[in-house]
Specification:
Shape: globular
GO molecular function, one term: small GTPase binding
Number of helices: 19
CATH topology of the largest domain: Cyclin A, domain 1
Low-confidence stretches: 1-30
InterPro entries: Rab-GAP-TBC_dom, Rab-GAP_TBC_sf, Rab_GAP_TBC_domain
Number of domains: 2
Radius of gyration: 21 Å
CATH class of the largest domain: Mainly Alpha
Mean pLDDT: 85
Organism: Ambrosia artemisiifolia (Common ragweed)
Order of helices and strands: HHEEHHHHHHHHHHHHHHHHH
Protein name: Rab-GAP TBC domain-containing protein
Largest sheet: 2 strands, antiparallel
Structural class: mainly alpha
Distance between the termini: 49 Å
CATH superfamily of the largest domain: Ypt/Rab-GAP domain of gyp1p, domain 3
CATH architecture of the largest domain: Orthogonal Bundle
Length: about 350
Amino acid sequence: MFGTQSKRDLSLEIQSQIPILRPSIHSRRANITVKFQDLYGFTVEGNVDDANILNEGIPPVLRPKVWFSLSGAAKKKSTVPDSYYNDLIIAVEGKVTPATKQIDHDLPRTFPGHPWLDTPEGHASLRRVLVGYSFRDSDVGYCQGLNYVAALLLLVMKTEEDAFWMLAVLLENVLVNDCYSNNLSGCHVEQRVFKDLLKKKCPSVYAHLEALEFDVSLVATEWFLCLFSKSLPSETTLRVWDVLFYEGAKVLLNMALAIFKMKEEELLMANHVGDVINIIQNTTHHLFDPDELLTVAFDKLGFMSTNISKERKKQEPAVMAELDQRLRRLNSSNLDENS
C-alpha cells in the first residue's frame, strides 16, 4: 500500500486518506449503549448518558468503547481500510527521523516504574503508536508530552490500534490547533486565554500572582501538553478525560481554573513564585478524589459562559507576534556567534 515512497510522500498520502471528521454535538450528547463481557465471560449491555459522564464518570469497563464512540475515533477509523494501522506500522518500521529519535529518548522517561509501560513490551507498543502518528501527521511529528497522553490511552484502550485512533482524534479534532506544533503556538494561546479567565474568575488570586510576577506557563504548559496525565493521579485524569471527550478542549481550562480556585486562600498567602508552584504541585499530585476537582470546576465555577473560540482568536495575533520576535532574537544571536 505504501511501497517505497519517501517519508514526506508517505506522510502526505496517509494524511490524504484521513478526512478530519468532527462528530456533531448531537451525536456526542446522545446516550451510548455498549456491549461488553463481564468477569465471567457473559455479554451484557451498559448505558452511559450525559449525567453519568459529568457526575459519576464512565465506568472503567465501559470507558474504552464509550471514549471510542464519543470522541469520534470510531468514525475516523471507519473512513480507511481495516489494515490501515498495520500497513502504516510496517511501512515506517526502521525509518529514522528527528521525531523517532526523540521518541526513543522519551520512552524510558514515560511513567517510569509502571509494571507494563516500563518494560520492553510496553516501550515497543508505545513507540509504535507514537512513531506511527509522527508519520501520519508530519506537521506535528512528535512533541514531548504526547508520550504521556499516548501511554495512558494505551492503558485504557487495551489495543495499540484503538490508542492510535484516540490519539489521532485528540490531535485532529478535540484539542486546539497547533498545540503540538514546533513553536507550540496553540499551547501559548491556551495559556493566554487561561490567564484572562483567571483574572475574571479569581481576581484576587490573579492580582496577587501578578504582583509576585508569577507566569502561569510554569504550571499550565505541562497541564495543556500532557492533558493533566503527568500532574493528576491517574483515576482523576481519566475522569477529566471523560468530560474532555464529551465537552471538548475548553474542559482543560475549567480544570486549570478549578485547581487555582481550590487553593485560593493558600495562594493569597504565598510570598514567592516558588511557594505558588509548591502549592499547585502539591495540590495536583494529591487530588485522589476526582469529584472534589469536578465539583469546583462545574458547580462552583460553572461551565464557561465566555466564548472560548472567540477568546482564542483574540489572543492569536499577540502570540504569533511574540513567537516571531523570539525567532528574530534567536536568529540574530546565532548570526552574532557565527560572525
